[in-house]
TrEMBL record:
Catalysis performed (reactions): ATP + protein L-histidine = ADP + protein N-phospho-L-histidine
InterPro entries tied to this protein: HisK_dim/P_dom (IPR003661), HisK_dim/P_sf (IPR036097)
GO CC terms: plasma membrane
Major enzyme class: transferase
Protein name, as recorded: histidine kinase
GO molecular function: phosphorelay sensor kinase activity
Higher taxonomy: Bacteria, Bacillati, Actinomycetota, Actinomycetes, Streptosporangiales
Region (Disordered) residue spans: 70-90
Length: 90
């Protein structure tokens, strides 16, 4: 049962991280392809947003792992919604 839960978690984690990574890759490729016409500030801003989304996903996954390891429930742990943007809280 635990092994199945771990496999499901790993699959979900991979899926959750794949989307922001794909978006970041696309933004980087677009910035390189259109570097003469693209606004570098806008491109960097979008890339930073993608990194922040990925960072939030990783923080959420780590929070779930810590919660499961300690047996805490959501009410016993400080929620992600109360954290400062960009803060790992770890």
């Amino acid at each position: 049962m635990l092994a199945e839960r771990e496999r499901r978690f790993a699959g979900q984690a991979a899926h959750e991280m794949r989307t922001p990574l794909a978006a970041l890759r696309l933004e980087l490729e677009e910035a390189l392809i259109h570097r003469d016409t693209a606004d570098p500030f806008a491109a960097l801003t979008e890339m930073l947003r993608s990194v922040e989304r990925l960072e939030h996903t990783v923080i959420a996954l780590l929070w779930l792992l810590q919660r499961d390891a300690s047996g805490q429930t959501r009410g016993q742990h400080r929620g992600l919604e109360n954290r400062e943007p960009g803060s790992t809280g770890l």
